[in-house]
Design a protein that fits this description.
about 350 residues, alpha/beta, seven-stranded mixed sheet, two-stranded parallel ribbon, globular, binds pyridoxal-5'-phosphate
């Protein structure tokens, strides 16, 4: 069975986790500080705050940006539901921006008058935030696909053109902590609020007494464990290798699929590095291709059932997003992950060739 994505775990990763298990701290401890410092190094952000998941990271970002009832948050419907749910968790309204059929990202020139934008870097290709038609009060990047991607402004996560940038460390993402996420920001106040939000809204008050603290915000327990952070730091050491390998696989697909009736994903423009979390191709007979690949032991996936199709979202309001729907009808993500061997990739291509 060849999946569409999977983790790469080596002996150093295993040793890093075992080491924590034999130490004093299991939940948030010194490895969290190290992991957050490593995230700052690879992204160039001033602050990184680890969370239990990418979803929790997005929730926290929406909360500390003071979005809530009465505010509207716009995002792309060609994404995982968490990109929109972060608004709903805090009581904000959601709105969707149709995609640009070329980039498959939300069209930055079509941003409506909203309080916040959640810019999803679909498949690992950064949204061009220099082209925003209007800049909402809050810009949050959903970079769950884009750790390791680079824009002309520097690495995704440096928040050069956003307030906060959210990552996921789910096993199919660029690096993994099992479950996990993080928010990066250059803003000291947002950093402080993010840390408080992940720890029940607690503000220590050593000025009153060494034991005293106050709960000043309705926060959550969104703390990552030290085992996860140690795994994350170990994985981050191979970030460059992972992203380079994903780009190599993508280049190889482009060559091997060039004579087939498939629409290849958009390549990164000059000055930009794609992270290739996904390699989403577009085909005319998607159902047949999907089922044919599955029957041959290749677990392709569709990213995504557009968010505005889901009953929980649809029941509020309906949206007309022609480019999103047109892309969805033809999209299929074929295997792309660092451990995918050339002979496995050849097999995917040969099965595809027969199905097309
Ligand atoms: C994976 C993902 C998330 C959520 O991350 P989790 O760590 O699974 O909670 C959010 N947005 C996008 C675009 C994702 O792909």
């Amino acid at each position: 069975m060849i999946p569409y994505g999977r983790q790469s775990i080596d002996e150093d990763d295993v040793a890093a986790v075992v080491d924590v298990l034999e130490g004093d701290w299991l939940t948030q401890g010194p490895h969290i500080d190290d992991f957050e410092a490593a995230l700052c190094t690879v992204t160039g952000a001033r602050h990184a705050v680890a969370f239990t998941s990418g979803t929790a990271a997005l929730h926290a970002a929406a909360a500390v940006a003071a979005l809530g009832p009465g505010s509207t948050v716009a995002t792309s419907a060609l994404s995982f539901v968490a990109s929109a749910n972060c608004a709903r968790y805090v009581g904000a309204e959601i709105d969707f921006i149709d995609i640009d059929a070329t980039t498959l990202n939300l069209d930055p020139t079509a941003v409506p008058d909203v309080d916040a934008l959640v810019a999803v870097h679909y498949a690992g290709l950064p949204v061009d935030l220099t082209r925003l038609s209007t800049r909402p009060r809050v810009v949050i990047e959903d970079a769950a696909h884009a750790l390791g991607a680079i824009t002309p402004d520097g690495p995704v996560g440096n928040c050069a053109r956003s307030d906060m940038c959210c990552f996921s460390f789910h096993p199919v993402k660029t690096v993994t902590t099992g479950e996990g996420g993080a928010v990066t920001t250059n803003d000291d106040d947002l950093d402080h609020r993010l840390r408080r939000f992940r720890n029940h809204g607690i503000e220590p008050r050593p000025d009153i007494a060494a034991w005293y603290y106050e709960v000043v915000d309705t926060g959550f327990n969104f703390r990552m464990t030290d085992m996860q952070a140690a795994l994350g730091s170990s994985q981050l050491r191979r970030l460059e290798t992972f992203v380079a390998r994903r780009n190599e696989i993508a280049d190889r697909y482009r060559r091997l699929l060039s004579d087939l009736p498939v629409e290849l994903p958009p390549a990164a423009p000059p000055g930009t590095r794609h992270a290739y979390h996904l390699f989403p191709v577009r085909v005319a007979n998607r159902r047949q291709v999907f089922e044919g690949l599955r029957a041959a032991g290749i677990r392709a996936q569709v990213h995504y059932v557009p968010i505005h199709h889901h009953p929980v979202i649809r029941s509020h309001r309906s949206w007309t997003l022609p480019e999103t729907d047109r892309a969805y009808d033809r999209l299929i993500s074929i295997p792309c992950y660092p451990a995918l061997a050339d002979h496995e990739q050849d097999r995917v291509v040969s099965v595809l060739r027969d199905l097309l």
